[in-house]
Design goal:
270 residues, mainly alpha, Cytochrome p450, 10 helices, 6 strands, 10% strand, globular, disordered C terminus
């Protein structure tokens, strides 16, 4: 998957091992799949997780005697009042980076490509105005978010909309509804990468103390991917069904069949 090499490069995994991380995350993600019709192999999940843990443990051991400039080395260097991260903490942080930074970004990329294909004027606008890339990312996440729910827990009794949510109630915020709230967004169902109204932050990355730590990395990954695609592909169009996964958990198109013509060599390398 597109995000995996980026995450691997950040933590300092050698290029020849990137395929391993892609395979491990594919297996482990089965346990995080909320789709009702999916069966998963528990033994394969545990084997992949154990192999990932062992690999990261070896990386930590190596880095502790030979620190580099990667993110794992920075985490090992990190200190607060003489306290440093333990091996268990480092292992879970690295696993968390991989889990949180892979499925989310690739699903959002597919969703973004789909909505741009369905709005060819917006595809052309992004191709002709690459400076709109970050706005295109933001608008596609508002219009078609892959993170369809944001889980939270009420820290105290909360009354909202005439309902009482007792403290410690598990709450799922619907980002599809929030991001298209007509009371907040003008013409909320319209997809426009050049919106000029002053929008509040979208809820796709959550908010507050638990706002997604990788939000800016995800935005940059998506922007770069969309810039390359719009530069190299002319007039992409969907040529078959693109059903979405259940809105429980991470969503997005399960398949996205498209046809396109290649851009001119000159424009592709511009």
């Amino acid at each position: 998957p597109y995000p995996t090499p980026i995450m691997c490069a950040l933590i300092g995994a050698p290029r020849e091992d990137w395929r391993l991380f892609a395979d491990w995350t594919e297996e482990v993600f089965q346990a995080l799949n909320f789709q009702p019709d999916v069966n998963f192999d528990e033994s394969a999940i545990m084997r992949a997780w154990n192999e990932l843990d062992a690999y990261v443990d070896d990386m930590v051991t190596t880095r502790r005697v030979n620190l580099t400039g990667d993110l794992l080395s920075e985490l090992i260097r990190a200190e607060s009042d003489g306290d440093r991260l333990t091996l268990d903490e480092l292992r879970m942080l690295v696993a968390g980076f991989l889990m949180a930074g892979t499925d989310t970004t690739r699903n959002q990329l597919a969703a973004s490509v789909q909505v741009l294909c369905e709005h060819p004027d917006q595809w052309r606008k992004l191709r002709d105005h690459p400076e709109l890339a970050m706005q295109a990312v933001e608008e596609s996440m508002r219009h078609s978010p892959a993170a369809s729910i944001v889980p939270r827990a009420a820290t105290e009794d909360v009354e909202f909309g005439g309902y009482l949510f007792p403290a410690r109630t598990f709450v799922l915020a619907n980002t599809f509804a929030a991001n298209r709230d007509p009371a907040i967004y003008a013409d909320a169902d319209r997809f426009d990468i050049a919106r000029t109204d002053h929008l509040p932050p979208i809820l796709t990355f959550g908010g507050g103390a638990h706002y997604c730590l990788g939000a800016n990395l995800a935005r940059r990954e998506l922007a770069e991917a969309l810039l390359v695609l719009t530069r190299r592909l002319d007039a992409p169009r969907r040529v078959g069904p693109a059903p979405w996964k259940s809105l429980l958990g991470m969503t997005g198109p399960t398949t996205l069949p498209i046809e396109f013509t290649g851009a001119s060599l000159e424009s592709a390398h511009a």
